[in-house]
Write a structure and sequence with these properties.
- The protein has 338 residues and is α/β, with parallel strands linked by helices.
- It has two domains: 188 residues, Quinone Oxidoreductase, Chain A, domain 1 (Alpha-Beta Complex), CATH 3.90.180; 139 residues, NAD(P)-binding Rossmann-like Domain (Rossmann fold, 3-Layer(aba) Sandwich), CATH 3.40.50.
- The protein contains eleven helices and 15 strands.
- InterPro entries: ADH-like_C, ADH-like_N, ER, GroES-like_sf, NAD(P)-bd_dom_sf, Quinone_OxRdtase_PIG3.
């Protein structure tokens, strides 16, 4: 048996229940991880409310990314993993628990200079940002990339990756503190969407040319400003709808006038092969930059909570107060270092 966070009835954070449930057994090609830390994502809030169910056949337990140590290898594991290896993993679910079983293709080694808490903040957020920028938008050197929610987990990862790819990161955020963080990570300029027009800001910054790429987790309410901000032949990549799904007005006509590309992407529902290719590309092209000296890339941790305080962690994210990732220490940090 193991402790895990369960949701018997969809609803608010108070519906998150810490229960004793059977420990999973690794299937063929899977590895059982003893979870040290997990991290929150916006999708977790939606799943808790019953709005984003896991893919068929996957765990009902919430949680899309973890870091921990290998406990057991399932039959037929091909790579040279061994018990007690420090790993981090992308999940379809099951992260808010003491153990989780993961296909070996979705494992990555934890860089030696990172704690488990830091490592847990990497898989979902950084693989999402990498997928959007590289696999979907195919960002090129010198391109201007507008990153909405620049102080979020995906946002802070995207800013750093745009820099790594020699692009020009521009951000929006809702507070001076979040803008300052994004600029510290490499954003060239930032706009407070609560106080100014980011479309005008992008127009002024680019000399009227616009952003070549927009990473958009907001959706509905921003569509006119996004189209206005988009360069001719630009790529608008939609990966969330925090600002609503409904659109009213001449979206298609205005997008057509820019010859704009509207691209959409989700990660959780992708095939295992797609995720395996993504993890392999990220491990080869990006992961080394977390451990070079001084480190080029770093996960940004906003706060940490214990598994017992998972409801408070969800409330913190729902209040939109976090800058970077919210991490759940499944094993207390003191025990992790022993």
């Amino acid at each position: 048996m193991m402790r895990a966070v369960c949701v018997d009835v969809p609803g608010g954070p108070e519906n998150l229940l810490l229960q004793s449930v059977p420990r999973p057994n690794p299937k063929a090609g899977e590895v059982l991880i003893k979870v040290h830390a997990a991290a929150l994502n916006r999708a977790d809030l939606l799943q808790r409310r019953g709005l984003y169910p896991p893919p068929a056949g996957e765990s009902d337990i919430i949680g899309l990314e973890v870091a921990g140590t290998i406990h057991t290898l399932g039959p037929g594991v091909k790579k040279q993993w061994k018990p007690d290896d420090r790993v981090m993993a992308l999940l379809c679910g099951g992260g808010y628990a003491e153990y989780v079983s993961v296909p070996e293709e979705l494992l990555m080694p934890v860089p030696s200079n990172l704690t488990m808490c830091q490592a847990a903040a990497i898989p979902e957020a950084w693989l999402t940002a990498f997928q959007l920028l590289d696999f979907v938008a195919q960002v090129k050197e010198g391109e201007v990339v507008l990153v909405h929610a620049g102080g979020s987990g995906v946002g802070t990862a995207a800013v750093q990756l745009v820099r790594l790819f020699r692009g020009v990161p521009v951000v929006t955020a809702g507070s001076p503190e979040k803008l300052k963080l994004a600029e510290k990570l490499g954003a060239v300029v930032g706009f407070n969407y609560k106080e100014e027009s980011f479309a005008q800001g992008v127009h002024d910054f680019t000399g009227g040319k616009g952003a070549n790429v927009i990473l958009d987790c907001i959706g509905g309410r921003n569509w006119e400003s996004n189209v206005s901000s988009l360069a001719i032949d630009g790529r608008w990549v939609l990966y969330g709808t925090m600002g609503g799904r409904a659109v009213e007005g001449d979206l298609l006509g205005k997008l057509l006038s820019k010859r704009g590309h509207l691209l959409t992407s989700l990660l959780r529902s992708r095939s295992l092969q797609y995720k395996a290719d993504l993890v392999k590309a990220f491990t080869g092209r990006v992961l080394p930059y977390f451990s070079d000296q001084p480190a080029t890339l770093r996960p940004v941790i906003d706060s940490t909570f214990s598994l017992d305080d998972i409801a408070e962690a969800h409330k913190h994210m729902e209040a939109n107060r976090n800058m970077g990732k919210i991490v759940i220490n499944v094993i207390p940090q003191i025990e992790q270092t022993q």
